[in-house]
Specification:
Layout lengths: L1 E12 L2 E12 L3 E5 L6 H8 L6 E6 L8 H4 L3 E4 L11 H11 L5 H8 L15 H13 L5 E5 L7 H15 L5 E5 L3 H4 L5 E6 L2 E7 H7 E6 L4 H5 L5 E5 L2 E7 L3 H5 L2 E4 L3 H9 L8
Parallel strand pairs: 3-7, 3-8, 5-6, 6-7
Antiparallel strand pairs: 1-2, 1-4, 8-9, 10-12, 10-13, 11-12
Helix pairs in contact: 4-5, 5-6
Amino acid sequence: MTAIEARGLRKTFGSTIALDSIDLRVEEGRILGIIGPNGAGKTTALNAILGLTSYQGELTVLGRNPWTERDLLMRDVSFIADVAVLPRWMRVSQILDYVSGVHPRFRRAKAEAFLAKTAIKRSSKIRELSKGMVTQLHLALVMAIDAKLLVLDEPTLGLDILYRKQFYDSLLNDYFDRTRTIVVTTHQVEEIQDVLTDVMFIDRGRIALACSMEEFESRYLEVMVLPEHVAAARALGPMHERQVFGRSILLFDHADHEQLAALGDVRTPGIADLFVAVMGNQPGEIR
């Protein structure tokens, strides 16, 4: 079953093109990472998928039109935004009571089981929790909803590395069951590389690259070239080159592994390095 399918999806804000006639297909049971610089169109794409903004073109999510059938769609979709917003005056026990009362697919026992692994007290008010704890609470609420699609927009923004690790571990071990579909955007690219089944690069409203992680790992190779072999490596037509501690690292698309191994140390590149290569930027972090 196809969870998300878009054809010619377009969105403009005045003269600004946020989505430029993109085609997208996400199969059920996949984890798609959408990577792009600020202003690339990531959040606009998520808002269209969630029925939060109008658009041109065709878009179906779980077999429904998200703009005209949002009420029905939201029964099968959960969403965590870049800032976890929960009523600060409520106690943890009260937010559990509230979600139990308003969402028919909320499984309180599952939320309680997740919270039991944290230091969050049921008697605490949300305003007394750290940012990491609020994110944990939000995740507990969302994971306890029997949804078919989970959309995460920068879900670990501002959290330290320990909370980010716990977040993705919980996502994989306590939520994902290979029937649910997850779409996530993040700037902490390296941390989710082992979580994803598919990756998509987006820039200025257009898809620059879309592939499965299986294709990613078989298609792209990176080699730290021995100094005496730099000229030979460059002659093979790398898509990108950068310098690290005086050594040349070249990234190739569809190159022969044995041929590269004769020139230096070969490895699978990181998503961030491939992003820089595809976008044609100078070496550095994704903004």
